[in-house]
Amino acid sequence: MSIQHPPNEEHIDEQMVKMEVNLDDMSGEWLGFVMDRLLEAGANDVFYSPIYMKKNRPGILLQLLCSISSMDKIKNILLAETTTLGIRYYPLTVHRMERKFITLETEWGPVTVKQGMKDGIVFQSSPEYEECREIATKHGIPLKQVYHYIWKLL
Question: Do the beta carbons of residue 121 and residue 10 sit within 8 Å?
Answer without folding.
Answer: no
